[in-house]
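for the writeup, i need someone to sanity check this before i put it in the appendix. the sequnce is what the collaborator sent (i think, or maybe the updated version? ugh). structure was predicted straight from it, no edits. if anything looks off just tell me and ill rerun, i have time this weekend
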Amino acid sequence: MQTTFRKIGLIEKYRQHLPVTASTPVVTLGEGNTPLVQAQNIPKLLGYPNLQLFFKLEGLNPTGSFKDRGMTLAISKAVEEGARAVICASTGNTSASAAAFATKAGLKCYVLLPHGYVALGKLAQAIHYGAQILPIKGNFDRALELVRELADQTPVTVVNSINPYRLEGQKTAAFEVVEHLDRQPDYLCIPVGNAGNICAYWRGFKLYRELGITSAAPRMHGFEAEGSAAIVRGEPIKNPETIGTAIRIGNPASWQEAVRAASESNGKIDSVTDEEILSAYKLLGTAEGIFTEPSSAASLAGLIKHLKDGTIPHSALVTCVLTGNGLKDPDTAQKVTSVDLTPVDAEIDALKKVMGL
């Protein structure tokens, strides 16, 4: 007996809202439909018990980050258009996603990475999925410049967020937030690196408002890392630095659209320090049992900042986007958490003594 499998993935679910046709070959790994989890402890710990806080766990996509939402569409369209190879610049997550979906589609994948500035978990993924890794002596912004030049001179398709299909796929996360809440949040807080994701969410929320599915759209609050805060400073940063490697970008590709998204939604793009990011990163783990990569915690760090200064009301309904899984960057978890791992004698009395029982 032949078994028929139900089609899954974002393209099939949201086909009517995406730039695809009946002949588009769908390349999917089952991305999307990530959990929206309500915070049980953080609002009280922060002193805002009436805050309704939800976390969108995008680290539970197939390759561990939100990049899969856009990549399923970008790779599907690349196959439809006859591509044989794709290329991207990456701080890590894009490389993992591009490599996985390219392999699924039978395409060659080239990845330019800033040497020494990519978390090991992400690099391991790209290698495992079969991409050709090209570490460069330069930062992400230089890598993206080179990718653009290579695309002009060679037969490769760029799958960074400058690819028009990437943000179209990523906007589906906004649809899911609305569907899970049965309404739009009052505020959406999100990390900002290359700035494409805040644009994608805004596209999604706007579309649902235009279709009458929601009566309004949330205020978009995006947060750069202070050492990489080009939009906040109003100028590119030549040598961006931050513990959040995924948002260590000094000249965001979607800069202008991100500014429009914040402005149109009556929101704001702001910055948070590495100290604030790490504090939020640890709080997610110890208070809610959520493990993200550090850059993801910029959304919660920013929310805390805007709650304290009164920018966001203490009783608002807020969604914080957590963009990547903590297993992407396990080294940081070990570095910032003080845990005594001294071995204990394998005896009951010794264990009880250490446990204080």
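The chain is about 40% helix and 15% strand. Residues 25 and 79 are 7 Å apart (CA to CA).
thx in advance!!
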